Every structure is written in structure tokens, then in C-alpha cells.
Amino acid sequence: MTEIKAPRGVRDILPDESWKWAYVLNHAHAVAGDFGYAEVHLPIFEHTELFSRGIGETTDVVEKEMYTFTDRGDRSLTLRPEATASMVRSYIEHDMAEAGQPVKLWCAGPMFRYERPQKGRYRQFWQLDFEALGSSNPMVDVEIIELSLELFRRLGLTNLEVMVNSVGCPKCRPVYKGRLMAYFGAHLDTLCESCVSRYSRNPLRILDCKNPQCRAVTEDAPGIYDSLCEDCRTHFTSVTDGMTRLGATFHVDKRLVRGLDYYTKTAYEVLSGQLGAQNAVCGGGRYDNLSEAVGGPALPSVGFATGLDRIILVMEEQGCSFGKRPAPLVYMIAQTPAVRTEAQILTASLRRSGLAVEMDYLGRSVKAQFKAASTLGARFAAIIGESEMEKGTVSLKDLESGEQVEVLRHDLAGKIRKLCESN
Asked: Full-prediction pTM beyond 0.85?
């Protein structure tokens, strides 16, 4: 029978790596709390219309990358390719406008896009998503950017580059589109097929193309700044001034439009040289019109998303610490088969007292049990044999110092804690 393997583009997160994910998620929880962002848990699939209307029909995500299916009720559903549209849908559906504004939310979970698998990019991938909904103040844009940088700072990341731009608003973007069409109209014969298709529908998407030939053409494309209306220009200046006040180093990138149509005004990315061509470790911006696009009220909002796979890749490349790998504090060693039952009772007792304890379930020799304790990284070995059974004691060995003491069974948990406190 043929062996069944995971589909292309997805992977198992095994114990050697999952503890690193927990480390990053714990830091995300802490940063979210410090900035006042509350966690939400969103559905993994939504009505397809939420993404097609919210993200934009001409984006690569909607045109090429969504996992869409028809359910038994003949409804078109899509595995979420990103979380922002879902976050806005949740805000609208649950009348969060009644809460104090802005409503600051975050989530973590799997997203799905049909892309070419490569280093740091998978078809199922985990993202952290932070959103501030209900405020048009540029200071909130600055807070979102600062939040992402603070998360990376606490994780130990260095040599990151912040790229920022404005993508205008419905008032001034048509002016910029006209300038882009005039420019790209003279280069249609050098653009890829997808960009030729985008030319008349949404020429801003050409700026986001990763095709090297198209990238070369966009080098001399007009920037948006000269086309911005007064409101967008003032907003962008306030954002860059705010970042400067907070000491954030950044660069303005005229080609930065992000891959989703819902962005207005601020767009930004945090880049890392460790990731090669796909070098964005974080991206986001303002999306004041997304709520109305999916049938909701006006809702000025700003946010960002970052991928766990990419964060961990960069941390590993830079030699960042993930803290101490989880390990049992105590390994219970049964010297003979006759005491294994008692060893399990003692193991359960220590666990109920809040200690991490492991024991052997394979009937291995004492030597093999000590080896297992070392492999797992246990600090102590609690040894019980027939002699200890008779006396109501346990031999406790410190596997770091080699010191061994005999302890009454009912004193074992307290003794272990005292030894931990003294070192």
C-alpha cells in the first residue's frame, strides 16, 4: 500500500521546532498585553465574498492563491488567506463599535494560500495579526509599526529595515493611476502577462509584481507622493514624523503598495536580509475603506501581520535565543519491575504538586533509564528500589552536580523545590 504523506506546501511542526513557536507566541501575548490588544479566535473559513470584495479581485491572492470550495449547501467558502478581512467582519457582526474606540485586537492561527513552496513560505502558514479598528489618527499607525518593532526587539532580532509609503485614498489614487497608466502604457511589451492584464484594471498591482523584468520597469515609475491629496500628504508626514520621534529608522519606498487592495494611506514592511528575495518579515498598513467594501459602516483601521515561520527563520539565522527548551525537572527511575507501580504513583503525586516529571514505560534497565533522563534534559533523577520501598524513601540525584541524597517520600516535592531555589 502506498505511503500517505502530507500534501505539497504543508508541513508538520515537530517537537524540535514547536517549542520555538511557543516561545514566539508567548512574547506575542506579552507585547499584545503591554499595548492593550485583546486576543480573538476567528473561523478558519469564511464566505468567499468576504475576501474577493475585501482583498480585491485583481490581487494575486484572489486571482490565483485562494483555497475555495462549495459546501453541501452550495455555498462558496474559502480557507482564510489572511486575517484582516475576518477581523473586520467580526467587528461589524458583533457591534464592537459600542466599545471604546479604537478597538485593538490580535489573533494567531493558520492561513492558506496556493503559492509555490519555498524557504519560509508554505501553503498553510501561521500568522500573527494585530489590528486597531475605529481611529483615523496617524498616531495609531505609528503605534502599530512600533508594536511590530517592539515584538521583534524582544525576540532579539536585529538588522531589520522598515520600508514605508503612502498608497493614497479613493480621492487621490485615480490621479496616480492615470500617471501610472501613462508610464506603463509605453512599456506594455516588456511586462509579464499578468501585469498586462492588470494595466487597465489596477496598474498599482504592477508595482507589486515580483517578476524581475517587471521590477526593472517599475524602477523609473512615478512615485505617488506628488499625486497625494492634502489629507493623505498630511497623514503620511504625521506618520513619518511620529516614527522619527520614537527613534525608528525607516526608508520611504515609492513602489511599496502591498499585495492587497484594501490598503489606504500608510503601507509598510519590515525587511530582513536573512530571507533572500522573499525578505518581508512583517507587513501592514491602513485600510480605511475595507469595512464599507464588505458591507459595513465607515471604519478607519490599521494593522499588520507577521508569519511565525519567517520570524523563526530569521531568529535562527541571527542566532537569537529561544529560551530553554522544555524538559522534565525529574525523571523517575524504577530499579526493579516490582517497584514500577509505586514509581508511577509517586510520579503522579509529584505532577499533582506542580512538578514536571517523566518515567520509563518500556521496562528499560536502570542504565537505560538514566540515559533517557539525560537525553530529555532532566535536572533530577528520583530513584526508587525495593530498599527505598521498605523505608518509605526516595534517592534523589542531582544530574548536574552528581550529588545524591535520600529523602522521605512525603518530603520529596519540597526537597526538589529547595534545591531548585538554591541554584
From this structure: yes
